């Protein structure tokens, strides 16, 4: 498997985890965040599906998602739910940055850059909700 394909598979893995995690986030988020959670969840499902198509178009059978994903900390009320969303978006940004860096095809680089940007914007929106300052970082996806 090429570096580009490995990076796309890792990005797909992060999207699978995001879709699962947004189910947890939805269960504990404030009711006034329901539309935002639904919007972001739909964005991750669409990105997951597009990434599967991208891998398949390149002749790669995508790996199946894990059966479940454990949050990095307990989520039992709206604050940890929002913090989980920040963690999910950070993980997706890191995976998509790696895909940008390893892309050998211009179309893959464009797709990965768009996905990185979208994850960074969603992360910043959650940071605003949490009252973080600053709400974003200089280089999304970097540790």
Task: Tell me what the structure shows.
The mean pLDDT is 96. This protein has helices at residues 3-28, 34-57, 78-102, 106-130. The radius of gyration is 15 Å and the shape is globular. With 143 residues, the chain is an all-alpha fold. α3 (78-102) packs antiparallel against α4. The protein has 4 helices and no strands. Helix content is 70%, strand content 0%. It has a single domain (3-61, 78-130), classed as Ferritin, core subunit, four-helix bundle (Ferritin).
What would you say about this model in short?
By secondary structure, this protein is mostly helical.
The helix/strand series, from N terminus to C terminus, equals HHHH
What oligomeric state do these chains adopt? single chain
Largest sheet: number of strands, sense, barrel closure: none
Fraction in beta strands = under 5%
Write down the CATH topology: Ferritin
Average pLDDT figure: 96
Q: Which class do the helix and strand fractions yield?
A: mainly alpha
Shape: globular
Give the end-to-end Cα distance, rounded to a whole number of Å.
25 Å
Q: Total number of β-strand segments?
A: 0
What is the rounded Rg?
15 Å
CATH top level is: Mainly Alpha
Q: What percentage of residues falls in helices of 4 or more residues? A: 55-70%
CATH homologous superfamily caption? Ferritin, core subunit, four-helix bundle
Uncertain runs: none
What labels would you give this structure?
about 140 residues, mainly alpha, Ferritin
């Amino acid at each position: 498997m090429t570096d580009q394909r490995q990076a796309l598979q890792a990005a797909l893995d992060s999207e699978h985890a995001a879709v699962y995690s947004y189910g947890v986030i939805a269960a504990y988020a404030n009711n006034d965040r329901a539309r935002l959670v639904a919007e972001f969840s739909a964005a991750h499902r669409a990105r997951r599906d597009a990434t599967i198509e991208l891998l398949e178009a390149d002749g790669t059978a995508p790996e199946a998602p894990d059966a479940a994903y454990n949050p990095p900390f307990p989520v039992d009320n709206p604050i940890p739910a929002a913090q989980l969303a920040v963690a999910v978006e950070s993980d997706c940004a890191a995976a998509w940055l790696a895909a940008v860096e390893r892309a050998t095809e211009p179309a893959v680089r464009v797709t990965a850059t768009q996905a990185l940007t979208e994850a960074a914007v969603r992360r910043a929106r959650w940071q605003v909700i949490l009252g973080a300052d600053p709400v974003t970082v200089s280089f999304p996806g970097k540790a």
